[in-house]
């Protein structure tokens, strides 16, 4: 098992891009999808989706900043 700090630059960039993409997918499905389907609007889905987007985005940004 490899230590998480032992990844190279390319792997770190790859994971950061993956987390950015995950945040976009969650945003599109949980936040925008919830707003578009107004009849089935659910505040819990909106809030949890927003929090999840924020977590993935911050995680990706932190990995991206570590390489600099």
Binned strand content = under 5%
Helix-residue proportion: over 70%
Main sheet makeup? none
Q: Gap between N and C termini, in Å?
A: 26 Å
Would you give an account of this structure?
With 68 residues, the chain is mostly helical. The chain has one domain. Helix content is 76%, strand content 0%. It has 2 helices and no strands. The chain has helices spanning 9-36, 43-66. The longest helix has 28 residues, at 9-36. It is elongated, with a radius of gyration of 15 Å. The mean pLDDT is 85.
Provide a concise account of the structure shown.
This protein has 68 residues and is mainly α.
Key terms:
68 residues; mainly alpha; 76% helix; elongated
């Amino acid at each position: 098992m490899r230590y998480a700090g032992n990844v190279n630059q390319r792997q770190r960039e790859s994971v950061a891009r993956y987390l950015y993409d995950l945040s976009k997918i969650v945003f599109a499905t949980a936040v925008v999808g919830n707003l578009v389907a107004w009849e089935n609007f659910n505040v819990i889905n909106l809030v949890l989706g927003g929090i999840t987007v924020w977590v993935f985005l911050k995680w990706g940004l932190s990995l991206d900043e570590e390489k600099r």
